[in-house]
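P.,

For your records, the input lines for the assembly:
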Amino acid sequence: MSDARPFEFIKECPICKSPLIKKDASYYCVNEECPKKDIESLIHFAARDTMNIIGLGDAIIEDFFNMGYIKSIPDIYRLDRYVEELKLLEGFGEKSINNLLDSIEESKKTGLDRLLFAVGIRYVGKKTGKILAKRFKNIDALASASFEELEAIRDIGDVIAQSVVDYFNDEDNLKMITELKELGLNMGYESNEVEEETIFTGKTFVLTGTLDSITRDDAKEKIENLGGNCSGSVSKKTDVVIAGHDAGSKYQKAVDLGIEIWDEAKFLEMLNI
DNA sequence: GAGCCTCGAGATCT
DNA sequence: CTCGAGGCTC
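Structure tokens returned:
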């Protein structure tokens, strides 16, 4: 790639035929109006880490988008209008559609932290969503927060503060939030974290290697619910490294830095308070 | 010492 | 991205 040009055209977007540009390791369509962006934002919304709607994966979202059933995020919660029609689609039946609608209904309860991540506010991901949800408790309080108020929060700097202010100043975004509220989505946040101190409280953990009895995501969630933090890399700020089998460089670094190491058995024992 | 800048480390974002 | 450390100026 030549440095003289701002970007290099590679190929065309399969959806709208506009050129694609390469940014980091991925290709992006230059067309701001490209429907692929809408599809991707819907996929992100329904994904496991966000609203966790089972039965609404990327392929089905793309199909439903192209067929006109889901054009926007609120449309997901209006899908029940088409229930009889959907059951007739190839590959769907009574049971799969009912399961899908159940999962959509269930996702309404999810809560503000994941909802903030799901709607795609720039720089607001899983962690920042939780920080904001915890601090403001409901979406109206967040929507009326000032830049100064946001920037004063730990781990929120000027860039994220501005991004949040901009998001809630946008009429389209506000309209969508209102619709979601009317459709019955939970716009509040109740912490499921334990109040009392645990061995995990305030400590930073790093997971490495393979754990047999629990997935990495579940382990992370449990640690966080018990008041701990998880990070991806070992540093002098790491308190404990949890090492499954076949652990690699992170294990070695923990040894070098003299950081406490728990094996899976020790970790399970600690979870079992 | 307050104010401003740059830089690196660590963590996060989609 | 955020933030704190360290250097520099006034």
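Two observations worth noting. The two ends of chain A are 55 Å apart (CA to CA). The longest strand of chain A covers residues 19-23.

Regards
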